[in-house]
Amino acid sequence: MPHPIVLLAAGFFIGCVASALLPIMKFKRQRLPGRMYNRRRDIMGSIVEQRLLQGPRFTCVGGGTGLSTLLAGLKSFTRNITAVVAVTDEGGSSGRLRQEWGVLPPGDVRNCIVALAENDNSLNQLLNFRFDRGELKGHSLGNLILLGASELAGDFNKAVESLNRMLAIRGRVLPVTTETVVLHGETLDGKFVRGELEVSENGSKMKRMWLEPASAKPLPDVIDAFPSSDLIVLGPGSLFTSILPNLLIEEARSAIRDAGVPIAYIANLMTQRGETEGMNITAHLDWIASVLGSMPNYIVVNQTPIPSDYLALYKERGAEPLYLSPEEERYLEHNRCAVVYADLVNIKDDKYLRHHSQNLSEILMNIARGGRD
Asked: What structural domains and CATH numbers belong to the chain?
């Protein structure tokens, strides 16, 4: 009998096909007025689709919640989006699947696919559903579907490509590599750390970082995406565990640096306990520049005050707000990194601080339209 995870994947594919056929079946039952309405709606949809197809080309590099938040807003402006996602996640469901099945961690890839999907509200409920008992406790359905699709296809990247097509996402999602890579680092006091969790706990004390195996290769499509972009976007997201792992792959960072395309870094709203505790914005940027080999052309920084009750809540978690000081601004100007201020604070579910995806996307659209000049 097939493994339950494979059955879950097969059931999901059947559901997608049924969802695609349902509008056609309904359309056949429509009378003439309904057909006219559908025709008008189709014309408007074609106009919007044409506008999206002519939008700027973005390659967004990162992982975790930050990247998916950006993608959810950017898809309203263009279909020409490539999301390059880190594959070093070791926590939660992704970490368990990586350890038990030897598959690349699917969580960040899943979040980005959902963010770029046409109807992300319903997909969020389905793909982010998390089991609370039995052998599947702690796993999200989306992670299991990606695992099942990988087993069926025999290749993680092919599974991702299949979901990209089946969900008709506005863009594409690519793992930066399909090789199993592990984060390593050395702290300022000479301590060696291994794996994403240990790196995250010691990020603010880190002296150097690397990936093993050092010979890991990025996907060819990842390399091809950078020079064909109008703008390369780094972040937002965890510095040491979402952004830098992509840049630690030699061919990937060389392709970014040599693409001749403007690079924008999205500064985080808050520091992260352990990982970036006590670091200011320029300290984040200095790490990126040291690994990448060059300073980004732009940095997008939040200027909106954060409500005091949320500041207190995050302070309890060891996080502080990130604002740019006059000294930092002069430092960035000296290094030819243009500062773009924006109102970026969004409060999600009355609990979490997130980037305002619409405002951020509008800023990036303006940069991309004039970036090559």
From this structure: 1-54+91-100+118-167 (no CATH), 56-86+176-373 (3.40.50.10680)
